[in-house]
Amino acid sequence: MPSSAHLQDPPPLLSRTLTQNEGQTSLRQSSSCGPSAASASESLSGSTESRIPHSKMLQGKLPRNIPLEYPAGLYCCYVVIIVLSVAVVALSVALSVKKTAQISTINTYAACPRNWIGVGNKCFYFNEIPSNWTLSQTLCKEQGAELARFDTEEELNFLRRYKGSSGYWFGLHRESSAHPWKWTDNTEYNNSVSIGGDEKHGFLSDNGFSSGRGYIVRKSICRKPNSYTSQCL
Amino acid sequence: MDTSRVYGNVKTFRSPGHKQASFPSLSTDACRCPHWHHLALKLGCATLILLLLTLIGLSVFVRFLVQKPLIEKCSMAAQENGTEPTGRSAILECPRHWQPHRNKCLIISQISRPWAEGLVACSMKEATLLIIENEEELKFVQNILKGRQQLFFIGLNYVQTEMTWKWINGSVLKPNILRITGSEVENSCALISHTEVFSDSCSSDNHWICQKTLKHV
User: Fold this and answer.
1) pLDDT tens by residue, A52-100
2) Taking the domains of chain A in order of start, what are their residue ranges?
3) CATH architecture of A126-224
4) What InterPro entries does the entry give (chain B)?
């Protein structure tokens, strides 16, 4: 039995001695300057390593995230603002045009005098002061024109649409209701559009072409070639 | 020796504390830039709203100008009361779009047609072409026509067989009321402007003036 007791005793003794050895080694390390410096440098390097990646992460995130979100939103806002601004400007222009009620000329060559309207290679003038047919023709001639005639469908459609609801003298006339209609240059009318009424002087009404007595005072329409054509000639 | 060990441990804990302190400063830097962006965004949104409202206002205004004043055709429903034999009805006011003058209501046509068609159009409104009864009425009518560079048929035509101008109610034109400029030939009808009365062909296209007499019971 005592022999067994002896056998049991050695393990605790061995463990005690081991622990004592460990304590001695730690003391030695702490006492030496080299190991302490090494530990200090390690701690510094550790802190720098931990700091650097953190700062890198933050720096990386800011440029990555902010431009993706904010500038995109701003750009969208800018685009929308520009579009709306353009729309507002366009509407303002439309308003000013409507208010002044200026009718833009249909000049193809922009070679008609002021207040005349260009259609194809002709210029048309709407005389808003009423006068009889003969005086209307005289007033047209004073401007190097004749009472209006139409040579094309385009001119005819223009005259029909532009005159509004008033009656306008134009270039057709005849000697009597039994004679054929003629233009002011005495060329015969081709009757492409029938003329109402039984009189001798043609005018445009909102019902098409009509005829009346020449002494009646009405507005009138003049026509002449545009200067571009005359220049070419 | 043991106490020195403990101090070392405390130092190791402090270093992460320093690291944590650095985080808030970085986050505050990040907040400053977004703040400016937020301000810009707010201004942008305000501008957007302002532009949108302006756009809406202008659109409404332009549409308002574009819409031409509707020319409502003057349609008169037959007044059943008027047709009743009791005759209780009394028209004391002019219908819509008609111009009152003493005991008459006048209206100007929107279209041009020969005289006979004008006569029919008036009758469909339970009216007749205008009959001018005195000089005062002539002045009133011509005053209405100021600013209109148009001509209007009235209820006066030339009767070839009698060699005289007659109103459509059968009465003869009195020379002192109005003077007619132009030919006195067959198929002549009177046209009025704001200054003169002309004789023109009845088959010519012109506007016309209708009159409706107010009835008092």
Assistant:
1) 444 444 444 455 455 555 577 777 877 888 888 888 888 788 877 765 5
2) 126-224
3) Roll (3.10)
4) C-type_lectin-like (IPR001304), C-type_lectin-like/link_sf (IPR016186), CTDL_fold (IPR016187), KLR_subfamily_B (IPR051527), NKR-like_CTLD (IPR033992)
